[in-house]
Design a protein that fits this description.
Helix 2 packs across helix 5. The protein has 17 helices and 17 strands. The termini are far apart. With 444 residues, the protein is α+β, with helices and mostly antiparallel strands. The chain is 33% helix and 23% strand. The strands form four sheets. Strands 1, 2, 3, 4, 5 and 11 form a six-stranded mixed β-sheet that branches. A five-stranded mixed β-sheet has the order 8-7-9-6-10. It folds into three domains: 2-85 and 106-111, no CATH class; 130-316, D-Maltodextrin-Binding Protein, domain 2; 322-418, Alpha-Beta Plaits, CATH 3.30.70.
């Protein structure tokens, strides 16, 4: 008996002194009423050094030494049994009434798989994939083209309308939305400069892009005829994209800018304006109960708007699919060779540029330069936005940016993201084709 009990002190010392692999399950009341009890049931990080078999062996020795009763009474000592040791300074429970023969003690061990999992950043802000229930902010009201772009980028998302571009940026920064989908350029109207300025002001990252064909319609209240119209309202970009077609239709009416296309349709429906038409999508006509006076009134059938998806954290760049990277840089020193050096850094490595845009520096739009001959001259200081077809995981792109950083005073990567490679079919412009057909018939 003594030979079997001899290893007990060494095993127990090693167990109680070292990290625990398992601890006893707390009482049900303690777990339900105290958070600390639940936290104490977690295993230590260094528990991998102790096997479960070693702990069960120590428990068996404990049970054999205590006789299965855990008694510390003088009667137990007189029977030759060793008193049960104190666990973590806790006094052992009192001995039960004498029985015929105590059954072996059963220890309720807590399985590692049932322990509570600690919170992580993914619990606070899940990293959603395409098709999941995302909260996506966009500028405009339901029926806007930005809403359609959000649905194309994230099918099944929860679209959140915002009245301004600035609000969409802040919605993502304040964790109200997971993503933002905002337009940056149109094939006819050019760049949306406001969003380029906001990209520099905010710390969001571009995580993707989506290209959406734009199909404009002329909308009015039911029963309104074109000859009764006195004005047409829509977003400035939409008005510019339909200018030639409106002239060909004979609509020499006032054209007023509105916040967005769908908002213009909503304004007509809410105010009952029978002398005003809106340029918006066919979906906006369905939502606000308007009729389509003319379909496909854009000047060019290949009218496409490029949107970018913004998030709080960047994505990991890859090389297994086409990627695009957007950067912005500036330089304080004088000279016209800076832009040439930047373009040379890309050309030397055979990296194609898809866009280059210059914008005046918002904080220092005017710089004073002393000239001994003509006095003081005023010049603009510019920020340069560049999109190039390469991933930041590509060594060529890394070397190009390292070279550019040597002779620029400011360089920031706005995002490295997958390119939109989905094919699209341009919707034919009914009015443009009608004008072309009439012109060709007159020529013959």
């Amino acid at each position: 008996m003594e030979a079997a009990a001899a290893p007990a002190p060494a095993l127990l010392d090693a167990f109680f002194a070292g990290p625990r692999h398992h601890q006893l399950r707390p009482a049900a009341g303690a777990v339900a009423g105290c958070r600390s009890a639940r936290l104490q049931a977690q295993p230590c990080r260094a528990a991998a050094r102790f096997a479960r078999a070693d702990w069960q062996a120590a428990c068996a020795i404990l049970a054999s030494n205590s006789g299965g009763s855990g008694s510390t009474s003088p009667d137990a000592a007189s029977d030759g049994r060793q008193p049960a040791p104190r666990v973590n300074g806790q006094k052992p429970p009192p001995a039960p009434a004498p029985a015929l023969e105590a059954a072996p003690a059963e220890l309720d061990l807590v399985p590692v798989s049932n322990l509570p999992r600690p919170l992580s950043i993914s619990d606070l802000s899940p990293a959603p994939m395409h098709g999941s229930q995302l909260r996506v902010a966009y500028q405009g009201v339901p029926g806007a083209y930005s809403e359609a772009a959000a649905a194309k980028a994230y099918p099944g998302c929860d679209a959140i309308p915002c009245d301004q571009f600035e609000v969409a940026f802040q919605a993502v920064e304040l964790w109200i939305a997971d993503r933002a989908v905002l337009p940056v350029e149109n094939s006819l109207g050019g760049s949306i400069h406001r969003n380029y300025d906001l990209l520099l002001r905010h710390r969001l990252h571009i995580v993707g892009e989506v290209q959406l064909p734009v199909h404009h319609c002329l909308l009015a209240l039911p029963g309104v005829r074109r000859e009764l119209l006195t004005r047409v309202i829509s977003h400035p970009q939409a008005l510019a994209q339909c200018e030639l077609t409106l002239n060909a239709m004979g609509l020499n009416v006032a054209r007023e800018a509105f916040d967005d296309t769908a908002g213009a349709a909503e304004h007509i429906a809410a105010g009952g304006l029978r002398d005003t038409a809106a340029i918006a999508s066919a979906r906006a006509a369905e939502l606000y109960g308007l009729q389509v006076l003319a379909d496909g009134i854009q000047d060019d059938a290949g009218n496409v708007t490029r949107f970018v998806m913004l998030a709080r954290e960047p994505i990991i760049p890859r090389t297994d699919r086409p990627f695009k990277t957007s950067i912005v840089f500036a330089h304080d020193a004088d000279g016209t060779s800076i832009l040439f050096k930047v373009l040379s850094a890309f050309a030397f490595r055979d990296i194609s540029l898809t866009k280059i845009e210059s914008r005046p520096h918002r904080h220092r739009p005017i710089r004073l330069v002393d000239d001994a001959n003509v006095g003081t001259a005023k010049h603009f200081e510019y920020m340069f936005y560049i999109d190039f077809q390469a991933s930041m995981a590509d060594v060529r792109a890394q070397n190009a940016l390292a070279e550019i950083q040597e002779f620029t005073s400011f360089l920031r990567v706005l995002g490295s993201y997958p390119m939109d490679m989905t094919p699209w079919e341009a919707a034919p412009s009914s009015w443009s084709s009608r004008v072309d057909n009439s012109s060709s018939s007159r020529q013959h």
